[in-house]
Structures are given as C-alpha cells and as structure tokens.
Amino acid sequence: MPILTEEDRHLVALASSLRAGVRCERSKSKPSGYLIRTEIWFPNGAYHRVRDTAGKVIESKGIPFRRRYTKADEISSILMMIEGMESINRDPKGIETAREFNGRISNPKSYQDVLKAITMLDEFHCSIGQD
C-alpha cells in the first residue's frame, strides 16, 4: 500500500515545481512606467514535466493549467493547495512573498504608488531575512 495517494504525489509535484513572488519590471505600456504584481509560474522545463501531475491537481480545482498565474483568486487557490509544503520548494521565501502580497499589491497608477509598493516589499524582505 503506497504511503502517498496519487493526489498527494500531484500536490508534491506542484509544491516543488512552481515559483512564486512579486514581479517588478519597467513597462512602457503602464502609466506609472512599472508592472508590479504577484505571480505564480512554472519554469520552462518544469511546465512540461508536471503537466500530468501538478496540472491535474490545479485543474481539479477548476483552474486551467497554464505557465503563469496572475489573478489573485487563482493564486490564492494554488497557495492554499500547497500550504505547509513550502519547504520542499526551491524558493520558499518567494512563496511567502506571494502569500503576503497577493491581493495587496496591484498595478501602480503613479510613480508614488511604485515607491510605496517597493517600500512595502523591501520592508517585508528585511523582516524575513531576504536580501
């Protein structure tokens, strides 16, 4: 009798293969000049490798399996699925950052909003010991 069920193995594949965090980059299309948002994504190699495992568990929650997730409700659902398994991920601090800022940071409308978001991220990273 297996110790882990098939769904447990799919959750382990999901928790270990995804990446998460807050994306900050310059953008000519945004009024503030920056794109800042919470994201979950699968690196190129992992996306194809876990389609039949992580993809199934994500789809079982009514979320289509994609390379990148940016909607707060989808991110929340995925983070709830892997709660308690952050330590098996390559970047548990990225997951913690996504969990902290999902729904709290939205695309800044002005440069002042950009500064505010960056300050919040900096303070959070300092509090968890991330450089």
Core attributes:
single chain; 131 residues; alpha+beta; Endonuclease I-creI; three-stranded antiparallel beta sheet; 6 helices; 3 strands; 14% strand
Summarize the structure in words.
This protein is an alpha+beta fold. The protein is 47% helix and 14% strand. The chain has a single domain (6-127), classed as Homing endonucleases (Endonuclease I-creI, Roll), CATH 3.10.28.10. It has 6 helices and 3 strands. A 3-stranded antiparallel beta sheet has the order 1-2-3. The longest helix is centred in the last third of the chain and has 17 residues, at 111-127. The protein is elongated, with a radius of gyration of 16 Å. The N and C termini lie far apart (44 Å). The mean pLDDT is 91.
Brief write-up:
With 131 residues, this protein is an alpha+beta fold.
- Outline: elongated
Largest sheet: 3 strands, antiparallel
- Number of domain units: 1
Q: What is the level-2 CATH architecture name?
A: Roll
What do we call the CATH homologous superfamily?
Homing endonucleases
Spatial ordering of strands, largest sheet = 1-2-3
How many helices does DSSP assign? 6
Measured on Cα atoms, how large is the radius of gyration? 16 Å
Averaged pLDDT, please?
Answer: 91
CATH fold-level label? Endonuclease I-creI
The topology string of helices and strands comes to: HEEHHEHHH
Q: Which consecutive residue ranges, at least 5 long each, have pLDDT under 50? A: none
Amount of helix: 40-55%
